[in-house]
Amino acid sequence: EVQLLESGGGLIQAGGSLRLSCAASGFMFNGYALSWVRQGPGKGLEWVSGISNSGVSTFYADSVKGRFTISRDNSRNMLYIEMKNLTVGDTAVYYCAKRDGAHWGQGTLVTVSS
Amino acid sequence: DIQMTQSPSSVSASVGDRVSITCRASQGVSNYLAWFQQRPGKAPKSLIYAASTLQSGVPSKFSGSGSGTDFTLTISGLQPEDFATYYCQQYHTYPLTFGGGTKVDI
């Protein structure tokens, strides 16, 4: 069974940093491009960042470019996103997912306070 | 960036109804189009990928069609558990983009 399990969310002050992790199991991790997607309170889904299966290529939404860094460790089946200089606007549930959305984690809540 | 325009933004329906939701891409995405269902407080659930391929375990009352720029999700025989918000997403080109969502309620 495919599982994606996010962790690392929490309450952080504006300007702070946080690293989210996503532990994957049940599929050939190094064969899939992955994404981070977020959903602010009462809002729709917003794609945040993506990474190729090898980790060589990374992609970012304009709203996080220069502040967020995506990475993966194919030896440990782990996906990460390092978030810096957080703002209130980054408050959201963050999901990891396969690029085609076939599988999603349960999400981890990041709350940025002013 | 490819814009995904989903319509309607909300639809009222009854149990047993058939509902269609459309998604239009600002440029062609071939068939790299997925549909998701999201219930309140839950993670999105994949329904369809490659525009028309049903995800494993998803009932056949869900169907998808289209290619290029125009896509449709149809839900037949609405049941209480189908009342949720539905999203489309293109995964043809980065940045990946989602439609704004369609809330299906009673």
Describe the structure.
The complex is a heterodimer of chains A (114) and B (106). In chain A, the strands form two sheets. A six-stranded mixed beta sheet of chain A has the order 2-10-9-4-5-6, with no helix packed on it. A four-stranded antiparallel beta sheet of chain A has the order 1-3-8-7, with no helix packed on it. With 114 residues, chain A is an all-beta fold. Chain A has no helices and ten strands. Helices cover 0% and strands 51% of the residues of chain A. Chain A is globular, with a radius of gyration of 13 Å. In chain B, strands 2, 4, 5, 6, 9, 10 and 11 form a seven-stranded mixed beta sheet that branches. Chain B is 0% helix and 48% strand. Chain B has no helices and eleven strands. The model of chain B has no long low-confidence stretch (mean pLDDT 96). Chain B has 106 residues and is mainly beta.
Mean pLDDT of chain A: 97
Question: Into which percentage range does the β-strand content of chain A fall?
Answer: over 45%
> In terms of structural class, how would the helical and strand content of chain A be classed?
mainly beta
> Which geometry of chain B do the CA atoms define?
globular
Enumerate the strands of the largest sheet of chain A in spatial order, edge to edge or round the barrel.
Answer: 2-10-9-4-5-6
Order of helices and strands of chain B: EEEEEEEEEEE
Low-confidence stretches of chain A: none
Give the C-alpha Rg of chain B.
Answer: 13 Å
| Residue runs with pLDDT of under 50 for 5 or more positions of chain B | none
Q: Largest interface, by Cβ-Cβ below 8 angstroms: which chains and how many residues each?
A: A-B, 22 and 22 residues
- The end-to-end distance of chain B, rounded to whole angstroms, is 34 Å
Cα-atom Rg of chain A, whole angstroms? 13 Å
Main β-sheet of chain A: number of strands, strand sense, barrel status?
6 strands, mixed
User: What's the helix count of chain B?
Assistant: 0
Ends of chain A: how far apart?
Answer: 40 Å
In DSSP terms (H or I, runs of 4 or more residues), the helix count of chain A works out at 0
Number of strands of chain A: 10
Provide the helix percentage of chain A: under 10%
Strand content of chain B: over 45%
Rough outline of chain A = globular
**How confident overall, as mean pLDDT of chain B?**
96
